[in-house]
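Final report, closing paragraph on structural work. Over the funding period we assembled a curated collection of sequence-structure pairs, and we close with a single example.
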Amino acid sequence: MLRWNKGMWIGSVLLVFIILITACGGADSKLNKAESEATLESVSTEAPAAEEKKTRLYNTIHGDIEIPVNPKRIVADQYLQTMLALGVKPVGADQYYIDNPYTKDQAQRIESIGDRSAVNLEKITALEPDLIITATEDSNTYEQLAKIAPTVNIPFGTNATFKGVHAEVRGIGELLNKQETAEQWLGEYDKKIAQLRSKLEGVIAPTETFSIIEAASKVFYTFGDNFGRGGQAIYGALKLTPSDIIKKELMKTQWKELTLEVLPDYAADHVLLFSEDGTDQFKDSEIWKATPAVKNNHVYELAADRYWYFDPVSVLAQAEEITDMLLERNQK
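Its predicted structure, as stored:
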């Protein structure tokens, strides 16, 4: 009887132990289930990540145009040098700007889309652009380009939308979503231009005047501050002084045809001279020899193919070249 009660007692203890283990297992199972459900509920109620915006509206002279936020295949018949300065390399560009000597290395492997006077629409189509940047003044050309890809038309030159280096770099930077890069480039530009101006202090007096003369076969031309030929560099960047007649007549019209007889009226104390066709017979004339700039050895001959351009990159390079010319000539 005693043995039986002892066995029963042991059995009872084992039974209670088994029940407790089972109960705990069940509780753990319910807890794990509850935790899993809570986790699933948390995941299912979490807001999905916002999709990155791929296009945006850009205001142009033709109204709002939907363009890529970050275009990958750009074709441009203008603003190539500014794009390169911002680290953007288009797949196609105008041959005239591809040939710019200041950026020729950077422009390698950019496909030519033709000359400024006639872009090749078939070539542009074959390049499969996702954005076209143009400065065309021809409405028919614009309409044809707009059929190929979103096309932004930004007037250039004397009627430019972006007037001056800072406006152009910032404007193209905003178009291409490169605002930070644009400000960095302008910071370096301003620093370099300030250094160039400081080099000329004490060498060129504020009262000394400058003009630009281009010699052609039978006529001459003079220019203002926004028609290339170094105008943006000397008047805009370096802040050199135009002669009174240049200031009065050229800063709006930007260019004027001259004869040899009136040339001395437009030849300032310092003359930037270049000839697109190599004409130099005028140098033997008494009229030319009598001009103060010639007598004082203040004529600086420029390479025409380097001074046609007036994009921000070219303006900076020209300002550096002209500063070196002035320092070298005036230190002799």
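Confidence is low (pLDDT under 50) at residues 1-50. The first strand starts at residue 55 and ends at 60. We thank the funder for supporting this effort.
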